[in-house]
Design goal:
The complex is a heterodimer of chains A (about 425) and B (about 325). Chain A has about 425 residues and is of the alpha/beta class. Chain A has helices at about 80-90, 110-120, 145-150, 165-175, 190, 200-205, 215-230, 240-255, 265-270, 290-300, 315-320, 335-345, 350-355, 360-365; strands at about 5-15, 20-30, 30-35, 50, 55-60, 60-65, 90-95, 125-130, 155, 180-185, 195-200, 210, 235, 260-265, 305-310, 380-390, 410-420, 425-430. Chain B contains 11 helices and 9 strands. Classes of the chains: A alpha/beta (about 425), B alpha/beta (about 325). At the A-B interface, α3 and α4 of A face α8 of B.
């Protein structure tokens, strides 16, 4: 096992360079040694194991900026190992892990724990984020300097908005001091109130409390103002509505250091998919109107939205089989992320290069990771997939411990054939 | 010779001319010599009344002024807020006019609010010395720091002085920036962004948020006390993180010029902004010298102001 592997007869897609061509890729050890249309001129690479890609797409492994696991504290929902298996099956080779665990990741020792535990049990690359405020309570900033040194890749209160503008300002200023990335959740809590789903006719008909899109837009607007004071690296974790997207677009035009992501379910579903109180479609921010969903698609196309994330949030039956108002927020998504990205190609007319850009190179750049590209010297993190294969989503087949997918029964495209991390195949379709 | 410091009050460094500062430092030098003699008692302020009016607790500044006044022969009265009628609801200005009616000659005032000392000075007929007002100025601290530096380095002009820590809440930093830049030093301010005042880059000092950068090549490292009592609403995550990135220990001090000297206005938070090994290093630490210079410079200030008092006897 000298570790030379030749991927031949592939359709290479590298969104970083815009490459979409037939060719090959040579892996040596853990990195990409060569890639391109003429890597194996005679079609016979020497001294290498050969994998025939049969003309299927070979792309950088997906980079997912937003994944929750249950370890430590809720291992029955998801462990680092099971999240890793789920990611591998979905073609995701790197993910940023949200700090919402028990205990909360707000101490350097816990970042160290996650890093070691992931190295021992997970086969994809897991990057712990740390809480922006201690205990996710929004009152006291966490030790951003020490946590950065320990390896926290970003700082976020994950699914909570820091309500106090003063605290948020200080967090941003202090994060800027260490050039740390801050990932936010945008929902003005006093306006969202006890709302459960998107405010509108649907919510009213269902008798569920509504959360207006203004709650999201106000929170983003506030953060942008604070960003003007602090110039921190700011990433809006999930944008879900046109109103908030407009705020981001305007901030970007003014040259502020802002990026944003959209969750797969906000790109592919709308509030009507909640149907008859389907709690698997209860997410935060809530599924929005069809107009907002279309605005998200256009945001990805225009590049205002930089990344598509799974927002993978495993929930067990005891947190979901409840009356809608009592059910937990969250949906699994690692094993449907690629299909959502491909839907932009099949349904919205984006090229494969542009559809994959938001799940590979762009999130990798935000996180300052060397992955997400097919380049000499880059980590050999790859996904081989058939972009046109139809699939009917069946959560029973998921590798994740949890099955709470809002895509249950949905017809989508894309079949992952092989997933490679650091040159090693960690998933292969049966 | 009264022309070099012809002021009724000492409220701030900002309005002072370089010659005035140097006059006070020269006079301070003389009082250092006086204080090192067995016979320290002078009669410069004989018959005069000095009131120390402290609205904020202080040990070293208050005792330093008390000793300075007594060595110059004044009658010294200490008033702290806990004993005063301010606690009973009297306004600041009423307190001032009441004290003024007792005909003191000099009042030394410390107050937690910026501008409060100047407000009082406006209402009294005696001389007023600002012993620290809010986050505004602490002129005698800057003067004693300058005297300490000048005596050790024989100059101030051209030196690089890094002022590190809680600049936001520090009146010491503000007075020192004014004074040291007037005397030709290159001043740097080093603080995390949450403790760096907005607009500090317009003060004539260089601004650094990375301590390692800020200390490079510094002749003097002046540490500030982390004023935790003034902090509401998360300026910093923890003291352990603060020490890790902004504390002064042997490793960070090694980034400054070889033999660079360390100052601290006190009281120190050991293990928060300064490591004990540095604070207690007699080769590098000027902290005790600062205290000695404090008494001398306050005698100099009292002397200089007393020359402007009504009915002052002319001395040559």
């Amino acid at each position: 096992m000298s570790g030379r592997t030749a991927f031949v007869n592939a359709r290479l897609i590298d969104p970083d360079t815009g490459l979409d061509a037939k060719g090959g890729l040579l892996v040596e050890g853990e990195t990409i040694a060569d890639v391109g249309p003429r890597v194996f001129n005679d079609g016979k690479p020497a001294n290498a194991a050969v994998i025939d890609c049969n003309g299927q797409v070979l792309a950088p492994g997906l980079v997912d900026m937003r994944v929750f696991t249950g370890e430590p504290g809720a291992e029955h929902r998801e462990t680092l190992a099971s999240a890793s298996e789920s990611a591998a099956a979905g073609g995701v080779t790197s993910f940023a892990m949200m700090p919402v665990t028990d205990p909360v990741i707000d101490d350097a020792a816990l970042v160290d724990f996650i890093t070691r535990r992931a190295a021992a049990t997970a086969r994809v690359r897991i990057y712990p984020t740390a809480a922006l405020t201690k205990g996710l309570k929004g009152a006291q900033m966490s030790e951003i300097g020490l946590l950065s040194e320990a390896g926290a890749i970003a700082f976020t209160d994950a699914d909570r908005t820091v309500a106090s503008s003063l605290i948020m300002r200080r967090c941003l200023a202090y994060a800027a001091n260490f050039d740390a990335l801050v990932i936010t959740h945008a929902e003005e809590p006093s306006l969202a109130g006890a709302g459960q789903i998107n405010e509108g006719a649907f919510a009213a008909r269902m008798g569920l409390g509504g959360i207006p899109t203004a709650a999201e837009a106000i929170a983003v607007e506030r953060d942008i103002r604070l960003l003007e004071l602090t110039r921190a690296r700011y990433h809006l974790g999930q944008v879900s509505c046109a109103a908030a997207l407009d705020v981001v677009a305007e901030a970007k035009q003014r040259g502020l250091p802002v990026t944003c992501a959209v969750a797969g379910h906000h790109l592919a579903l709308n509030e009507n998919d909640i149907g008859e109180y389907k709690t698997f479609a209860k997410v935060s921010p809530p599924l929005r109107s069809e107009e907002d969903r279309q605005a998200m698609v256009e945001g990805v196309r225009a590049g205002v939205i930089d990344a598509i994330v799974s927002s993978h949030d495993p929930q067990a039956p005891e947190t979901k089989r409840l009356p809608f108002a009592q059910a937990a927020y969250g949906a699994v998504g690692l094993e449907t992320l690629l299909s959502v990205a491909l839907s932009l190609h099949h349904d919205a007319g984006l090229s494969l290069v542009d559809a994959l850009r938001r799940v590979t190179i762009d999130p990798a750049k935000i996180l300052r990771l060397p992955q997400g590209r097919l380049a000499k010297g880059a980590p050999a993190d790859l996904v081989l997939f058939d972009p046109a294969a139809p699939r009917k989503i069946d959560p029973v087949e998921f590798r994740s411990h949890s099955k709470n997918s809002p895509f249950d029964g949905r017809l989508m495209h894309g079949r992952v054939l092989r997933t490679v991390v650091a040159g090693q195949t960690i998933f292969q379709a049966a | 010779m009264t022309g070099l410091f012809a002021r009724q009050h000492l409220l701030a460094i900002a309005p002072l001319q370089r010659q005035e500062i140097e006059f006070l430092l020269d006079l301070g030098d003389e009082y250092v010599d006086v204080n090192r003699q067995i016979q320290k008692k002078k009669d410069t302020l004989r018959g005069r009344t000095l009131i120390n009016l402290f609205f904020e607790p202080s040990t070293r500044t208050q005792s330093s002024f008390e000793l300075a006044g007594k060595r110059l022969g004044a009658d010294v009265m200490n008033m702290s807020v806990t004993q005063s009628s301010v606690r009973k609801g009297e306004t600041l200005i009423d307190t001032a006019t009441t004290l003024n009616a007792m005909r003191p000659d000099i009042i030394v005032i410390r107050h937690q609010d910026s501008g409060a000392v100047a407000l009082l000075a406006d209402k009294v007929s005696c001389s007023v010395i600002n012993a620290g007002d809010g986050a505004h100025e602490h002129p005698t601290q800057a003067l004693l720091d300058a005297l300490t530096i000048r005596r050790r380095m024989n100059r101030i002009e051209g030196l690089t002085v890094a002022i590190c820590g809680d600049v936001l809440h520090s009146r010491v930093a503000r007075s020192n920036v004014h004074l040291l830049t007037k005397l030709g030093a290159r001043v740097r301010l080093v603080a995390p962004r949450t403790l760096m005042p907005i607009g500090a880059n317009t003060w004539g000092a260089e601004v650094f948020t990375d301590m390692r950068e800020g200390l490079k090549g510094a002749d003097i490292v002046m540490m500030l006390r982390l004023q935790m009592e003034r902090m509401t609403g998360s300026f910093l995550p923890s003291t352990r993180e603060y020490f890790r990135f902004y504390g002064l220990d042997a490793t960070t001090l090694a980034l400054a010029k070889p033999g660079a000297l360390v100052m601290h206005p006190g009281p120190m938070n050991r293990g928060v902004e300064i490591d004990s090994a540095i604070a207690d290093d007699v080769e590098r630490s000027l902290i005790h010298e600062q205290v000695e210079m404090g008494v001398a410079i306050r005698m100099a200030v009292l002397d200089a102001l007393s020359r402007q008092l009504p009915n002052a006897e002319r001395r040559s």
